[in-house]
Amino acid sequence: MDKDGTPNLWRSERNGLPAWAITCQSVLLPSWVGAQELEGREVAEVRIEGNQNVPAESILLVMDTKSGRPFSAERLRQDLQAIYDMGFFAKAPVVLPMLTPEGRIIVIVRVFETPSSKPSSLRATPLSRRRSCKP
To answer: Is residue 21 part of a domain?
Structure first.
């Protein structure tokens, strides 16, 4: 639980990743939500969490998943790889897709910055230096 009493979903981890997470390698969703239930639903909002130095706007710029667009797990996997390829993160980001009461999706992206991520160091990473989140 967070200080305000709301559950902190990021802390319920299994094998280092939350059980509901979407990573750039695979889709892991709660048993009550199948991937087919999310596909094509409208994205209500995309939120970025865990960023201290890298602006959320910079992260959102590399993502194709946007508010108002249909949800696609494959597009989201590509977005997560693009975020990781920015070069400012210690490990691949994870995502929590949440359904709103109206049936839309809120996409929460959790990033893990490297200690050296500073706003002044934001720049494009050459293709030759890009990392893959594959083991």
So the answer is: no
Which backbone phi and psi does 129 adopt, to 5 degrees?
A: -105, 0
Q: Longest C-alpha distance within the chain, in Å?
A: 45
In a domain, 65, yes or no: yes
CATH of the domain at 42: 3.10.20.310
**Dist. CA 76–CA 71, nearest whole Å:** 8
Total structural domains within the chain: 1
pLDDT block averages, 10 residues each, the chain of length 135: 48 46 45 67 95 94 96 92 92 88 92 75 51 55
List 95's β-bridge partners, or say none: 22, 109
| pTM of full prediction above 0.85 | no
Beta pairing partners, 97: 107
